[in-house]
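Example record

One chain of 204 residues, shown exactly as stored in the release files.
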Amino acid sequence: MFEYILIGSGFAFAAAIQPGPLQAFLLSSVVKKGWKRTLPAAFSPLVSDGPIALIVLIILNRVPHTMSRILQAAGGVLLLYFAWAGYQQWKKQTTTAFNVNEPAPRTLLQAATVNILNPNPYLGWSLILGPVVIAAWYQSPTNAVMLITAFYSTMVAVLAGTIFLFGATRFLGPGSRRALILVSAIILAMLGVFQLVVSLLRTG
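Predicted structure tokens for this chain:
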């Protein structure tokens, strides 16, 4: 069980730290409205990911075991790619600039819409979370529940912390953002290697 908690929380931390459309909207909202009014948007993944996760899990539960292993291996490769991209961004000694002129989400629903239009949840559930959740479920339903709980608890906590830091410091300093990106790249690389190894060792 502890293994799945680590996987869920580790991937969620790395995903929440990496710059993307949702993070850009959160920052623009903090700039325009303050961190307190933006804080509810941290829960947007809980709203947006439900339909995505349900559809993916239904499909994955019907595919042959061999295909599930292939998808899990592909997820490992995708994680390594994300890790490499994060490392390259850190190596350039610059961080992705957020566009504060983007319209800020006025409601939790709008923030969730931003996330639905973001390709990352689809990739994450199809190639990373989905296969791991299925494997965990076959071992024990409790493992699958703990993995999903750890993922979304960490995701919401990190997004909320990011919103607070954006508000408390106006912007995270370039050095701080670079350090967080490097940490997330290391976590993604470790998870990618783990996914590849597990996909090769899975049986039955």
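Notes: Confidence is low (pLDDT under 50) at residues 96-100.
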